């Protein structure tokens, strides 16, 4: 899977890697917009909204054909949602609310075929394969799969070192809002409790020789040394940009002389 291999190579080499996560609205054309914007990957979020599955599969196929990484965030860190997410054909998964090694083992079982796991592949993702022999699945799909477990609770934070070291983990990830809520500082992004927790997650990744996926203000995070970034949610960015445009327009000064009248048609 070339798109997964390309993304893994960037992540593991600490190259600047920037993407977005589509939560509120998704359509396949967003893939082309992301590519034209110079992004390195796109995550389709199925945790909070159920986007139409055929559209998600179409987007994954576009990514495969263009070697542009498309990941999915499934609804839960459980066997069936993870297996079904992979059936849609992404090159990786951002997995929410991972808390311990037992959950990591379940993720492993859901993403790997026997004998390494228990996955039963199906759906549009099968179209990626030239044949269905085990070695083909392993070398063309599983070996380049990107798995990002999100730490979003105090329990996950306590077990972060083991989660980061798990063989299936590509890079450690964080869900800063949910983590802040579980730490009792919702939403105080500068609180010592949250910044200390994020540092602990990052340190666990470094100790395991793995990068950290971080979401937030790109320039600020880049200055802090983060290289694997999720810059925004596109609809939230659109809403903020529209608000800024309206504010700038309202505050602009009217010209001292009226513009010339336009000719009548």
Query: What is the mean pLDDT?
Result: 95
Pick out the low-confidence regions: 261-265
Number of helices: 12
**Distance between the terminal alpha carbons, to the nearest Å?**
57 Å
Strand content: 5-15%
Q: Total domains, how many?
A: 1
Helical content stands at: 40-55%
Tell me the CATH topology: TIM Barrel
Backbone shape: globular
CATH architecture: Alpha-Beta Barrel
Say how many strands there are: 8
User: How would you spell out the order of helices and strands?
Assistant: HEHEHEHEHHEHHEHHEHEH
Radius of gyration: 21 Å
Largest sheet: 8 strands, parallel, barrel
CATH homologous superfamily (4th level) name: Phosphoenolpyruvate-binding domains
Structural class: alpha/beta
The quaternary structure here is: single chain
Protein described:
This protein is an alpha/beta fold and 265 residues long. It has one domain (2-235): TIM Barrel (Alpha-Beta Barrel), CATH 3.20.20.60. 45% of the residues lie in helices and 13% in strands. The longest helix is centred in the last third of the chain and has 18 residues, at 234-251. Residues 261-265 have low confidence and may be disordered.
Keywords:
single chain, 265 residues, alpha/beta, TIM Barrel, eight-stranded parallel beta barrel, 12 helices, 8 strands, 45% helix, disordered C terminus
Question: How would the blueprint of this fold be written?
Answer:
Elements (H helix, E strand, L loop, with lengths): L1 H11 L4 E6 L6 H8 L4 E5 L7 H14 L3 E4 L5 H9 L4 E4 L5 H11 L22 H7 L5 E6 L2 H5 L1 H6 L6 E3 L1 H7 L9 H16 L4 E4 L2 H6 L4 E3 L3 H18 L14
Parallel strand pairs: 1-2, 1-8, 2-3, 3-4, 4-5, 5-6, 6-7, 7-8
């Amino acid at each position: 899977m070339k798109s997964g291999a390309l993304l893994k190579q960037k992540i593991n080499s600490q190259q600047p890697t920037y993407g977005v996560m589509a939560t509120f609205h998704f359509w396949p054309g967003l893939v082309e917009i992301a590519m034209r914007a110079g992004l390195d990957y796109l995550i389709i979020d199925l945790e909070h909204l159920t986007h139409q599955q055929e559209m998600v599969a179409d987007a994954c196929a576009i990514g495969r054909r263009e070697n542009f990484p498309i990941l999915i965030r499934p609804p839960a860190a459980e066997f069936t949602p993870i297996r079904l997410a992979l059936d849609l054909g992404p090159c990786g998964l951002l997995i929410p609310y991972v808390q311990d090694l037992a959950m990591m083992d379940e993720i492993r079982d859901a993403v790997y075929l026997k004998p390494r796991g228990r996955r039963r592949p199906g759906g549009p993702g099968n179209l990626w394969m030239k044949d269905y022999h085990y070695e083909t699945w392993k070398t063309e799909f599983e070996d380049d799969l990107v798995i990002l477990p999100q730490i979003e609770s105090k329990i996950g934070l306590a077990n972060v070192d083991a989660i980061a070291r798990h063989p299936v983990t590509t890079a450690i990830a964080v869900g800063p809002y949910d983590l802040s809520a579980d730490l009792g500082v919702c939403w105080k992004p500068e609180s010592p409790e949250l910044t200390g927790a994020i540092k602990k997650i990052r340190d666990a990744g470094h100790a395991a020789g793995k990068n950290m996926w971080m979401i937030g203000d790109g320039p600020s995070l880049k200055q802090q040394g983060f290289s694997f970034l999720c810059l925004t949610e596109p609809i939230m960015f659109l809403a903020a940009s529209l608000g800024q445009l309206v504010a700038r327009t309202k505050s602009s000064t009217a010209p001292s002389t009226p513009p010339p009248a336009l000719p009548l048609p």
